[in-house]
Amino acid sequence: MENEMLRTDLADFDFEERYEELATLVNQKQLRTVRDTLRDWPEVDIAWFLEELSPEKAVLVFRMLPKELAAEVFANLEADRQLYFVNAITESELSAIIEELAIDDAVDMLEELPANVVHRVLKVAQPETRSLLNKFMKYPDNSAGSIMTAEFVELKPDMSIKTALNHIRKNGADSETIYTCYVIDKARHLTGVVTAKQLLLAGIDQTIGEIMDENVIYCTTADEQETVTQLFSKYGFISLPVVDGENRLVGIVTVDDVITVMEDAATEDMEMMAAITPSEKDYLHTGVWETWKQRIPWLLILMLSATFTQAIINSFETALAACVVLTAYIPMLMGTGGNCSSQSSVTVIRSLSLGDIEFRDLLRVLWKELRVSVLCGLTLAVVNFGKLMLLDRLTVTVAAVVSLTLLFTIVVAKLVGGVLPMLAKKLKLDPAVMASPFITTIVDAVSLLIYFRFASLLLGV
Amino acid sequence: MENEMLRTDLADFDFEERYEELATLVNQKQLRTVRDTLRDWPEVDIAWFLEELSPEKAVLVFRMLPKELAAEVFANLEADRQLYFVNAITESELSAIIEELAIDDAVDMLEELPANVVHRVLKVAQPETRSLLNKFMKYPDNSAGSIMTAEFVELKPDMSIKTALNHIRKNGADSETIYTCYVIDKARHLTGVVTAKQLLLAGIDQTIGEIMDENVIYCTTADEQETVTQLFSKYGFISLPVVDGENRLVGIVTVDDVITVMEDAATEDMEMMAAITPSEKDYLHTGVWETWKQRIPWLLILMLSATFTQAIINSFETALAACVVLTAYIPMLMGTGGNCSSQSSVTVIRSLSLGDIEFRDLLRVLWKELRVSVLCGLTLAVVNFGKLMLLDRLTVTVAAVVSLTLLFTIVVAKLVGGVLPMLAKKLKLDPAVMASPFITTIVDAVSLLIYFRFASLLLGV
Predict the structure, then answer these.
(1) Does the beta-carbon distance from B331 to A444 stay under 8 Å?
(2) B29 Cβ partners below 8 Å, 6+ apart?
(3) pLDDT by residue (tens digit) across A113-159?
(4) Which domain holds residue B433?
(5) Contact residues, chain B, for A198 at CB < 8 Å
(6) A175 and A223 in one domain?
(7) Do B201 and B59 lie in a common domain?
(8) Is the pTM here over 0.80, yes or no?
(9) Hey, is the C-beta of B191 within 8 angstroms of any chain A C-beta?
(10) B19 and B104: one domain?
(11) How far apart are CA B59 and CA B46, in angstroms?
(12) Which of A258, A292, A327 lies at the terminal end of a domain, its last residue?
């Protein structure tokens, strides 16, 4: 295998191409050969392979894997496959996996398992692990505490570099990262940070206290994950220390988990902007009923909220009957209003979640959206007026009614779209929820009211 | 300052609170004090401070910073401030910064500078740096080559661990990361990877060849950045090696740059879904005219494409005049169609960019969207029919026309929304561009055609 490497042009790997070959070996019960091949694979790809196999076969292969690798593979399995494995393996196998799992992966797993299985898992865990698991499971879903891990390297300020390096050699194997080491005092307060780079580049006789950086940027267990991702993105960290209420170091968050959090948060925002209830599963792994359940509530709410627009149109039924041509422009007016409001709301929602703007910028946002909306409104109104006169050959008054409505609708749409997500954030609601239903309903209703007001003013209908 | 730490509850830092104090010192020309304070700050925050000051004052402070720190701060400045500094400093200061800058940061800067300034920068660079810069600037915008850096640690298979550690001590200071070291043969072919963790945990007498992992996952300079981010997200890398067409190691991509790429890509997708031309600047740093330019093209296109729906409504003018009540349901039908298509398209676009689905999954996506759309369509049609009969007190036929249209519109909307982004991807277009304009226009037109077809069938209008 010398010099053989894995090509990665696309998301396809040699691994996937070798599925058939290995699956055949599994069917022929040549499990040892399968294991020896899998040993050289990355954990993620072994997990992928075990998910492609039937559960019964997968568990046979899984039980052949070396203890440590088995735990790492287990951490990468989907929740339903984890559940199957937990039920299929012996108490002692389960116990070995629990002890090998990084604490954040173990907590992730427990959160997805049914209560009786969680009970069984906790029963086989060592007392120390059990109490750690119980503690970690208490952190709220969206907090830094829920993504941190307890496996990290702690150093003392009075250690020499040599002692520190030996300490890392002894204890580093189980740590999530040894590249950033945290320095604590006797009361476990976080007092400094030393990178492996500093350790390697320092003279052997210096002490940790001499080379450590005392300006540690950290978060608390209760901080929101959004805050944590913003810190990683701003400072380019590989890991971030997490302290409890008394400033004692209790865990670290590593960059690989942050990437997952960031991706999930962006997906969630996009889903909510598109009026979908977010799910943790990816598209092809979500069943039809589940997808239906994610999508139907908002569709129902939005459909029923269209009752407002219906009611408004109905109340102007006679006016419309008198000037039917007005009807033809309703979709364009409402569509443009919707587009304008979603442009503003999506920009503001994204800026809020990246930390580019905060609630205190409300007036700046309002002022900016006002100016942009007037510019956009004037441009569209002028183009539209020209089109109505030249192509649609409407009278000046009807063209004016449509174009003025357009201008005012755009201003309202952009202001509402810009401000509502910020108010939501202030009220501790998710700004993305505001993008779709509320804004659309408000903008639709307002644009129709403006339309009929101009129609009655200028056309007397 | 002992034990003093930086609190980070929100995105606000002590730094920002200390702005006034430092700005006063700058005004009093106490630049040494300012420099001594800034030295303890993270580069990002020094850069932020320099951007808050006026350019003239900022450059005074900047020139006081130690060479290496100055380069790191410079890399974190916005493009316009970089340009100002480049023009304000001497040739020798500029030369020092260029030599200290990581190659990827230098390339980022050069890409934003006007041609004559680029020329000046290249002139003061050392020949070696200049040829590296010229080479790196040739990589296409969206490629792995354009985000890689040349500062990394290379090891040889026959090095002992001790030699390797000494090599790292000597050459590691300028590397972007020393945590993953890449092993190359005499022809510079990538042959293995060794982590600092493995180095520290290995016996001192082993050779690199013995402990290195030969299964290196890597990318080529020409690979798309999306492929690179998918690899980081899947495997949790801290860095990824990049090879040229002949499999020679030419650079590495580090996780901090990948986080930026991921965030920008997600922002870009959201912007395109909301019919905004993406920009690289954040919201508050984008001028009103610029924001207008990002938003107006799509608004114009979408407004004019509404001409289709107008034309359809106009051609059924007599039918609508005969049964005005039908008008009231147009917004609801078009709105629901739009919501359904954006639910599907956003899900598919996101899954494509995360690598969860590919073009070959087209039939699976179609089949899934078909089933989900029939379920959603039936649910909404039934609820809507009930509402029309009980609340709006319509006749059975009119209620049937509206509800049947709803059902068929939803099926069409979800299929179009699911398939179009995949076709776009296949045609090497950006799937996100398809989300808004095309899909909306198609779905709007189709829903009206279905509506009037049912109306003429069932109501004979």
Answers:
(1) yes
(2) none
(3) 888 889 988 999 999 999 989 989 899 888 999 999 888 888 999 99
(4) 283-459
(5) none
(6) yes
(7) no
(8) yes
(9) yes
(10) yes
(11) 12
(12) A258
